[in-house]
Write a structure and sequence with these properties.
single chain, 425 residues, mainly alpha, 71% helix
């Protein structure tokens, strides 16, 4: 039946290998265990590169390993040639076959021909092969640039980790200054592993706003309030004299936060009725409200003044705090400071009702001049008779009908029906 077409080329190759010029009497079983690429590589290492290439082409196999081995042998045998001569010889062949320059570059470095190694490495297209060798050759900055150019964040991160062994973090940060990917990864690594040196790094990069923000963040994340206050005061002291308005703003925020913590610490000691956890994470407005709730009026007023709290916000938190503290006398006094409070009467009514004092709420409802609002406030407390009386006082049949639609108790409905009948006459 003849030799199968797949086996015939192998037999021709084996006949060539057994020739006296080659001297490799190999069997098909041995070749199967060794593999053809391994055989081609061994031939190339014996100096039979041309034969190895012929066999690879004949069998339709890749020639990369053979050409790479030829390049290695050429370098090892090229002691009498200059770096430029060897480069010219290697470049043409490697480029023609589309083979990696990395292996040849590594060989050149091993035999002490660093200029040749760098020339070859500059033409390596694969960053994953190029960058590690550049680090080995001491081309740190170039390795970082190539890693960033590859847009491979894993390779860039690995490169940074290698370079951190050779360079102080601040020097490496300056090296990364014009490489956004590397700089972002380095800052993230520093924030996670060495947060204490992040501010100094940002200052070295001439990024004062980020440095100030990092100092503020670090201070705010400190769990102990007393230590957090000291750190915030230090942030203000360090950054308040900056020429950058954004940094000054951050410094002022640190000062305000320190003032708030100081007030909270004092409040904890002076207000025994304060519940544990009331002040945890409390905002400025919540703290002022707690001051008025626990009869610490002066302290609350001072904090509001120190933090430049707007008048309407201060009035609102005062109302809530006094109502929660059942200080109805002080709430009444607050209501009389001005003819009409800056927040209107609605918050007074709602605060009294929320604390189950409808009688107090109705006192403030009576001061509301707008009848529609008065009706709405009464209905929100389910005081339908008072709402109906307010609507009837101006003979507003639509409002009366709306109040009746909201009521459900028979006594309230009868009362409202009587008012509707009186207004209809």
């Amino acid at each position: 039946g003849g030799v199968p077409p797949v086996v015939a080329p192998l037999l021709r190759v084996m006949r060539q290998l057994r020739s006296p010029e080659v001297g490799v009497p190999i069997t098909i079983a041995q070749l199967s265990r060794l593999s053809m690429p391994s055989l081609l590589l061994r031939l190339a290492r014996r100096g039979l590169v041309y034969l190895s290439l012929q066999i690879a082409n004949y069998l339709g196999l890749a020639t990369d390993l053979v050409v790479e081995e030829w390049a290695v042998q050429t370098i090892l045998a090229g002691a009498d040639s200059s770096d430029e001569q060897l480069f010219d010889q290697l470049y043409t062949r490697l480029k023609h076959h589309g083979v990696s320059f990395a292996s040849a570059s590594a060989t050149a470095w091993k035999v002490g021909r660093q200029p040749l190694a760098k020339m070859l490495l500059n033409h390596e297209a694969r960053a994953s092969e190029q960058v590690p060798l550049m680090i080995t050759l001491g081309e740190d900055r170039q390795a970082l640039v190539k890693a960033c150019d590859s847009l491979d964040s894993d390779l860039t991160h690995l490169t940074l980790l290698h370079l951190l062994r050779r360079h102080p973090p601040l020097d490496l940060a300056v090296m990364c200054k014009k490489l956004p990917l590397a700089l972002t990864l380095l800052l993230a690594y520093t924030r996670h592993r060495e947060p204490e040196s992040l501010q100094q790094m940002l200052l070295a990069l001439d990024r004062p706003v980020e440095a100030a923000h990092e100092a503020l963040r670090e201070a705010c994340e400190t769990p102990d309030p007393a230590r957090r206050k000291r750190m915030l005061e230090q942030v203000y002291k360090s950054h308040s004299g900056s020429k950058h308005e954004a940094v000054k703003t951050i410094a002022l925020a640190a000062k305000d936060e320190a003032v708030l913590i100081e007030c909270q610490l004092e409040l904890e000691h002076s207000a025994p009725s304060l519940q544990p956890g009331d002040l945890k994470g409390a905002s400025a407005a919540a703290t002022v409200r707690l001051c008025f709730r626990h009869n610490q009026h002066k302290r609350g007023a001072k904090l509001a003044k120190d933090l430049r709290m707007p008048e309407k916000l201060l009035c609102a938190v005062k109302v809530e705090g006094l109502a929660e503290g059942n200080d109805w006398v002080e709430l009444d006094r607050l209501s009389k400071e001005k003819k009409t409070p800056p927040i209107g009467w609605g918050p007074f009514v709602r605060a009294c009702h929320a604390n189950r004092r409808v009688d107090e709420a109705l006192k403030y409802v009576a001061r509301v001049s707008d009848v529609s609002q008065r009706v709405e406030l009464c209905m929100s407390m389910e005081r339908y008779r008072e709402a109906a009386q307010a609507a009837a006082s101006v003979r507003d049949m639509e409002l009366l009908a709306a109040v009746r639609g909201g009521a459900s108790a028979p006594t309230d409905l009868a009362f409202i029906d009587n008012l509707i009948a009186d207004c209809s006459q």
